[in-house]
Design goal:
With 208 residues, the protein is mainly beta. Helix content is 3%, strand content 49%. The protein has an 8-stranded antiparallel beta sheet with strand order 3-2-5-6-10-9-12-13, with no helix packed on it. It has a 3-stranded mixed beta sheet with strand order 4-1-7, with no helix packed on it. A hairpin with a 3-residue loop joins strand 9 and strand 10. The protein is globular, with a radius of gyration of 19 Å.
């Protein structure tokens, strides 16, 4: 999609020593002795076949929102869950976790609400964008309970209004793509408004 989104509410865990720096290849193998069973839902419902990753290990959520990752290195880790590419809305979630040798579990069911954003500004095309590519125009960033960090990339789609469903409740910052944004840029966003999404019925936010 031409946009790389990095979510980092806390620094990533420090790199582990290599086998050569410790006791040889056997150490690297014995470190991969953790497994993680998890469940992720939005408003009590599984979001779909989203991708789940810790380091080089990956899997997908099943129809119930469950996942399992094996042969993980114990210690501090970074769990990411994302909806994938291809649609006009992309959701990313990142969370730090501590993996212990053996069995571990992780579960989150985030309360959600419907959000309607009004008076969205027009955003010009990204420079250097290949034909047929649709670079996201807006970014929602939320820092939620449990040190969860969430990002939602989306297009305006119709006029100056956009309605998003199943948005986790909590504090959010809405940004637009910066002028002069080049295809493949990271981090070039201009803040439009900050707000708190409440649990309950649909909520409207008018961009100043």
């Amino acid at each position: 999609r031409g946009v790389r989104l990095r979510l980092a509410p806390a620094p990533e865990p420090a790199a582990r020593p290599t086998a050569a720096e410790t006791q040889g290849p056997a150490v690297a193998e014995s470190a991969a002795d953790a497994e993680l069973d998890g469940r992720f839902k939005l408003g009590g419902e599984a979001p779909g076949s989203w991708l789940v990753e810790i380091g080089a290990k990956s899997t997908q959520l099943d129809a119930s929102g469950n996942f399992r990752l094996r042969a993980l290195a114990h210690g501090p880790a970074w769990l990411s869950i994302r909806s994938g590419f291809g649609g006009d809305v992309e959701t990313y979630l990142a969370a730090p976790c501590e993996l212990h040798a053996g069995y571990n579990s992780w579960e989150h069911d985030l309360p959600v609400a419907t959000l309607t954003l009004e008076n969205l500004p027009e955003v010009g095309p990204a420079e250097g964008e290949p034909a047929g590519t649709d670079t996201p125009e807006f970014l929602l960033e939320g820092a939620l309970e449990g040190q969860l960090s969430v990002g939602i990339l989306f297009q305006e789609r119709t006029g100056q209004t956009r309605t998003l469903t199943r948005v986790p409740v909590g504090p959010w910052k809405l940004s637009r793509r910066a002028d002069g944004f080049r295809f493949g840029d990271e981090g070039r966003w201009v803040t439009l408004v900050e707000f708190n999404l409440r649990h309950g019925g649909p909520q409207r936010v008018v961009v100043p």
